[in-house]
Amino acid sequence: MHDNSIPLHDGAVANILRACTGAKVDFHFVEQIHAKIIRFGFCTSPHFCNPLIDFYLKNEFVDSAIQTFKSMGTGDSVTWVAMISGLSQNCREVEAILLYREMRKLGVFPTPYVFSSIISACTKIDFFDLGEQLHALIIKWGFSSELFVCNSLVSLYSRCGNLTFADLIFSEMQCRDKVTYNTLISGFAMRGLTEKSVQLFEKMQSESLKPDGVTVASLFGTCASMGDLHKGMQLHSYAIKAGMCSDIIIEGSLLNLYVKCSDVKTAHKFFLDTQTHNVVLWNVMLVAYGQMGELLDSFHIYSQMQIEGLQPNQHTYPSILRTCTSVGALDLGEQVHTQVIKTGFQPNVYVCSVLIDMYAKHGKLETALKIFRRLNEDDIVSWTAMISGYTQHDMFSEALKLFEEMQERGIRSDNIGLASIVSACAGIQALSQGRQIHSQSIVSGYSSDISIGNALVCLYARCGCVMEAHLLFEKINPRDNVSWNGLISGFAQSGMSEEALKVFSQMIQAGEEANMFTYGSAVSAAANLTKKNLGKQIHARTIKTGYDSETEVCNVLLTLYAKCGCLNDARRVFVDIPQKNEISWNAMITGYSQHGYGRQAIELFEDMKRLQMMPNHITFVGVLTACSHVGLVEEGISYFKSMSEQHGLVPKQEHYACVVDVLGRAGQVCRARSFVESMPIKPDAMVWRTLLSACTVHKNREIGEVAAKLLLELEPKDSATYVLMSNMYAVTGKWDYRDRARQLMRDRGVKKEPGRSWIEVRNSFHAFFVGDRLHPLADEIHQYLEDLNERVGAIGYVQDRSSLWNDLELGQKDPTAYIHSEKLAVAFGLLSLPNVIPLHVMKNLRVCNDCHNWMKSVSKVVDRTIIVRDAYRFHHFQNGICSCKDYW
DNA sequence: CTAGGGTTAG
């Protein structure tokens, strides 16, 4: 036609261009036609130009299309649709939307074609609100039963997560096609509603619609998230028979299937067999090695893809960064971060959320916050990553503050977000806030969510709500060992150790598998109750199950033995820890300290520094206590100074109290006083109590009165305050003042906590009060005590009656009625236990002076080590002397 | 002239 100079005919041009669109025709050929159209003056004619625009847009010549469109004037409705859908298909969705606005302004009526295109554009860039507004217009214009329009609406609601609505539109459609099914199938699959997705696939087949490549690709996704390799492989065969496997998207979804079903071998083989230059395949392999924790292989993939000319994209970075996060390779993660910046992916939400998570998880919360604040998007994952980062680093109030900010901004949290904020509440025992979030989670439809359920169980247990914790625990179905651990650790941490151990034994009986968290909590509960034998049994279990090499478990075992007074066992655990961390060192130092082994504690601290371990606040409490035990005054002061000068630590009240103890024990009461007066923070009750007890030992009434006065102001309800005060007056001979202190206590209605001692004999605990005769062996115990008193009297022990607390005790006619509980416990222990093992006695208050002297003598006459844990410290009585060197 | 699919984060 061209050669014979036959004039242009619109139908012919349209047909030629349509033919060009599908075939790979040289652009210049089309340009020649375009030139002819212009030359013959048809450049405003929709008949000629619409096919031209369509050709340009389908072949990515967007600018040529826009140019053609601009020269046309208004065009017809087909022109607008071609432009709008074409722009949308070329990732220029915003321009498509703007063009739609212009079209409406010019009064051009929208057609179903326009609506399906524009809804699709909105869906692609998450303009869901606009999409919903357009839905209203669709109803108004009467297009709501058009197949293509409905398909685009199903897609819109699927993508924005409103599957209920998508399903509703689907069910109200009079006729559906493959696209309708495919759209909803992938919608369900993406939201993890795998069962619904499979059901729909079956329904589709019952309506004789043959699955195509799109269906299969979506279903591979469904199988992948269900972990159903078998069904996935059946589909794979189907895809091979149907000849779909060369499809680039099928390839990606198939590889993903094998990776998610943990068949990395098949996946890798498949990956090597693929021929396409497809970045998705590399990204999926990155996920494969990441989920196995193979950092080296991940980085090999990451660099190899770049060598082969593929650039990392917004999917690549999150995968590699997540692997860096989970294996703890922060340094490599930071390098990837620089590459993110260089390649311009920093504004991407996905990339940012992983960066936030990485920095937050590794304690770099300020860096995480910077990225988070710069992101400036209402992205729930980033908020959650930030919140849980705070929670993981015990910054619970920061977590709660951020959560409040999030709610003020109107961002709705999902199950993962709610679970992490509940954990934050558990961390600071914010019970009422936790309850509010509990109800919020029910309202949001998460009442059967296991992550929230587990977090709530932990919250209620930590807040001591035994009933609620158990009720919630019962409701979780199916339970996992996180549920059990939450209950056990919650009770253990809220001091309900008995309850924790009860649940632990139920867990074992239920055949549930305990892990390091379970053992950690159970051992810590046993340690709090100083249940040495039970602790040993749990220790045996950890050895059997191999958890005895976990540092965290070892640290608690060490503490258990130290708290039970078995320092040798504690030491053995410490020596055998394969990878000691700061907590291990702290626990051992503290253990030595509490038992009065100051030298060993200080030596260990020096070792710790040599090994470049970072001492923290707890380390220094141990070290300073050790100094006070050994009487290392100047060393103690210099260690105290080193806290801020060398280790960047700000001393807390307990450190000041330790220094006061160091000075007080050495008899430097005046120096202790001026030390307290020079404190940069307001001294708390602990500091004054320490000073007061130093004054009691060294009979310094002047300073003692100052300390007592301030202590009375700070803790007027604490009986220990009055006891200390009264003792201070007693030792300085001010009997009238002592009586006044006691009177004051009575007037204020403060009751002395009854003294109580207990001892473990053959797996059961025997507890005693003052003058107790309730024990079945009471007669034998008292008889034995009389013998014992004769024997200690023979080596010079004389009872010190000033230690007896009240007139009642002093005025008792029956002298056996005021025998202190620790004496009874010791007598019972000596009667009941083989005479080689040391006695371990626990007491809830401080041991009194008389009992202390008595124990020293007893340890000598019966030749036994007696270890007493009172409210303050351990006393090891051996051969007539005590490890506390008579200062406590 | 219109609609649907794969890989990434807490």
Task: Write structural notes for this entry.
The structure is a single chain. With 888 residues, this protein is an all-alpha fold. Among the domains are: 1-69, no CATH class; 416-490; 655-752, Alpha Horseshoe (Serine Threonine Protein Phosphatase 5, Tetratricopeptide repeat), CATH 1.25.40; 757-882, no CATH class. 68% of the residues lie in helices and 3% in strands. The chain contains 48 helices and six strands. Strands 2-1-3-4-5-6 form a six-stranded mixed sheet, with helices on one face. Helix 12 (194-206) runs antiparallel to helix 13 and helix 19 runs parallel beside helix 21 (349-361). The structure holds one DNA strand of 10 nucleotides.
Write a brief structural summary.
This is DYW domain-containing protein. By secondary structure, the chain is mainly α.
